[in-house]
Amino acid sequence: MNTIPEMQAKLDALRQKPAVRILAMESSCDETAAAIIENGRKIVSSVIFSQADTHALYGGVVPEIASRAHVDACDRVVDQALKEADMALSDVDALAVTYGPGLVGALLTGVNCMKGLSYTSRIPLVPVNHIEGHVSANFLTTPDLEPPFLCLVVSGGHSHIVRVNDYADYTLLGQTVDDAAGEAFDKAARVLGLNYPGGPLLSRLAEGGDAHFLTLPHPHPDGKYDFSFSGLKTAFLNACHKMEQKGEELPRADLAASFEQAVVDTLCEKASLAMADFGLSTLCIAGGVSANRRLRQQLTELSRKQGFRLCMPELWLCTDNAAMIGSAAYYRMRKGELAQLELNAVPALSLC
Question: Which of 22, 59, 142, 310 has its C-alpha lying 20 to 30 A from 164's C-alpha?
């Protein structure tokens, strides 16, 4: 039977090993993913099973369907990740798993899968925060990136400005007080008749539109670096409904471009303010919305004007994946963190 002292001794030994390979799993929402990462920086293999087409039938993620799909896919993605790496499970040094935040049923599937694998294989398991995983995706794309730096985390469920003080050490500077940026994109996309996932479709539609067609508010909540997208979303919905009530055809591309621009302006404004106030030389972005073309362009222009370095993950590393979890796990492992068999899913887990 595995004991905590036994597993801790193995983890302590790994902290001295020059090359550590971690098999990680991510299952917080509607992607089941497994990856093998070496030393937090090198992707040995990565497998992602997406449920997007299934949930598109319902206009959003259905938690029960997502959980059942994870149960079916967990073993398969792990086997495929090992196969692509040309490795056996015995070649793996440590395991990692997302335990929050996310959908509780989806998280539990991944947590229980990796706890079982750790118990039977006697390989240490490292618990990882999903948001920390998104931040760590930058280490995979930018090998020379070192803390401290600022990170703008923007996804369907999260909008944060985080100061990365050191590896696995964060200070939350600001966050959304209502809707997340990705959530606002999805709701606006629904009004324009776009399917799930709405954010990427809205961005694609916006490419042919006039971003100045509709003037939308830029809410300023009390927190200096906090975001608010609820009022912006409501103003957009009201404008669309008024046009429909008048019998006017919605200029969908112009409306999409106007909404996208308002969200991006808000994100850039807060990130720019925090960069100036804290005097940091590097800004990173992370999360699904960090793949947004307009956001990337505007931040690139901002970095040139303000003279800071901008780091952006490759597009496939912006959405949920296990590679980012393996990267984050490496630095948690270096700090000696270990999951016990009592590890549970924490749907509302905070980063700091």
Answer: 22
3-state SS, residue 268: helix
CA pair distance 58, 100, nearest whole angstrom:
24
Write down the pTM of the prediction. Answer: 0.94
Residues 261 and 268: their CA atoms lie apart, in Å, by: 10
Burial 96-122 (b: 16+ CB within 10 A, else e): bbbbbbbbbbbbbbbbbbbbebbeeee
Q: How far apart are CA 82 and CA 101, in angstroms?
A: 26
Q: Residue 19: how many CB atoms within 10 A of its CB?
A: 8
DSSP string, 4-53: HHHHHHHHHHHTT-SS-EEEEEE-SSSEEEEEEEETTTEEEEEEEEE-HH
β-strand pairing of 159-166 with 169-175: antiparallel
| pLDDT tens per residue across span 283-318 | 999 999 999 999 999 999 999 999 999 999 999 999
- Comparing CA positions, the residue from 19, 69, 42, 96 lying closest to residue 328 is 96
